[in-house]
Amino acid sequence: MSKTELVSVTARVPAEDIAGIPRGGLSAFIRAAIAEKRARKHPTPRKPRSRLGKLLLEAREEYLASGGTPLSWAEVRAEVARRRGDR
What letter does residue 20 receive in the DSSP assignment? Predict the structure, then answer.
């Protein structure tokens, strides 16, 4: 009997793309893997290198400390469209 070699495969897929797949379209294994990945914290905090990056990170931390919640990309796009006067 021969051994099966196992390999790890990683794919970066936007959350909106995964969220759009009906529950029956993803196996329980894939759903569990996605949930586990989303629950993980980044091992080390990211440190911005530029002055603008530092200012943006500071503004984000201040927003979160005041009780704000981060927006998804879809929510950011909707907010930008709303502020521009798009429907």
Answer: T
Chain Cα centroid distance, residue 12: 10
Domain extent for 72? 15-84
pLDDT tens by residue, 56-67? 999 989 999 999
Residue 4 inside a domain? The answer is no
Sign of CA dihedral 70, 13, 34, 25: positive
The candidate with the shortest Cα–Cα distance to 15, out of 76, 67, 68, 62, is: 76
pTM over 0.90: no
Number of domains in the chain: 1
